[in-house]
Design a protein that fits this description.
10 helices, single chain, 6-stranded parallel sheet, 6 strands, globular
Length: 213
């Protein structure tokens, strides 16, 4: 019997994936089109990985430059400025708001996001959904560690938990912790999950039925 539901945020509860992609493109547009294309491709391929890790990879592997603390702090601050308000105002994935309103009292709900922890808490609070979650977790913690923490801290057995995500990092976090995984399919990730042995959904409209059956 499912007792808890862990959600990724971007692309699972809220249609905000493109917002992050545009922000990465905008941050590195001064490097030229070739770099922008590589940055965007890397970002999309590594959905669910924190921006902290991505900035370090971009500087080391693409720009071949040292990433100073000053530049790192600037990138983190600028990225937040570009995305927070837009994510707060982005539309819900179909069925997500209804599930949270109707089912948060039936299941313990958690967020496991690659968004920085404090930023994720701010977004949930500004969207008026923070009270729907027993706990909210974000970067710099990795998702597998977040799931493990949820299980241990809240006394949950893996078979009583379902994780809903849209990225490989979500799938791996669930698998590493022996938690049931549900893939939220979008136009950009259908190929990724095509041959994976997991439940696949287009939206969250029938989520309660799926996890209760």
């Amino acid at each position: 019997m499912i007792k808890a539901v862990i959600f990724d945020f971007d692309g699972v509860l809220v249609e905000s994936v493109d917002i992050k992609t545009k922000a990465f493109a905008g941050l590195f547009e001064y490097e030229g089109d070739s770099i922008v294309r590589r940055v965007v491709a890397y970002h999309i391929k590594n959905a669910g990985v924190s921006r902290f890790e991505k900035f370090r990879h971009i500087y080391k592997e693409m720009l071949n430059r040292e990433l100073t603390e000053e530049t790192f702090d600037y990138l983190c601050k600028k990225f937040s400025e570009l995305v927070v308000d837009e994510v707060v105002n982005a539309p819900y994935v179909k069925g997500a708001k209804e599930f949270l309103e109707n089912c948060a009292s039936l299941y313990d709900c958690y967020i496991a996001s690659a968004t920085p922890h404090e930023e994720m808490e701010e977004i949930a609070k500004r969207r008026g959904i923070a009270s729907c979650f027993k706990a909210i977790y974000g970067a710099p913690r990795k998702k597998a560690d977040i799931v493990r923490t949820i299980l241990e801290r809240h006394g949950l057995n893996p078979e009583d938990v379902v994780y809903i995500g849209d990225a490989l990092s979500d799938y791996e976090a669930a698998k590493d912790n022996k938690v049931v995984f549900i893939a939220r399919l979008t136009g950009g990730n259908k190929t990724l999950f095509k041959d994976m042995d997991c439940i696949k959904i287009e939206n969250l409209e029938n989520l309660q039925h799926i996890i209760s059956s």
